Amino acid sequence: SQFRGIFKSACVACASLATGDLITQGFEYKQGELQEWNKIRTLRFAVVGLTLHGPYFHLGFGRVERLFGASSGFKIAVAKMAVSQITLFPIYLSLLFPYLSLLEGKSLQAAYEKTAQVWWPTFRNGALFWPVVNMVNFLAFSPGTGRVLCVSVAGIIWNCYISAVNFKANKLQQQALQGEQAVKE
After folding, report:
1. What is the pLDDT of residues 124-139, one digit of tens each?
2. What is the reported pTM?
3. For residue 95, is pLDDT > 90?
4. Which of 54, 62, 76, 147 qualifies as a cystine partner to 10, CB 3.0-4.6 A?
5. What is the dihedral of CA 114, 54, 160, 24, to 10 degrees?
6. DSSP state of 106
7. How is the chain split into domains, by residue range?
């Protein structure tokens, strides 16, 4: 059923986003940027995977499959990749960063500012990463388990990047706030 598929995708994305954040925090800890594991941060990424990422891409790629069919020929794979990159990805990023910001307790203004800061570089980097992953996925795997596994592994790598981008953007916002407070004093 449709609900079962959405739920399965949501659970996979929950694990993928949380895993990406855990790996990233491990690197940040080794570099001295973190003192300890931020469990709430990982939980936020898990919530985003469960409530946004999984359902959004399950439904979005389902529409792409219905539009072009299950065929995995080169021309169809290019069309699927282009449509998903042009339609699904920009909208997702426009939802992702504000959602993370609001879960972090930021104001709408701060969420907008962070999204404006990170959206283009993240989109640009994703436009290099995801078309390659999607072409491999559409050409090498038929719909179902193989595609889910391929995207899940690539997703963990991508989610490490997203976690790092979000962490750095938060750090810059915090430094700017501290600078404004110091000027007022």
Report:
1. 999 999 999 988 888 8
2. 0.90
3. yes
4. 54
5. 90
6. -
7. 2-184
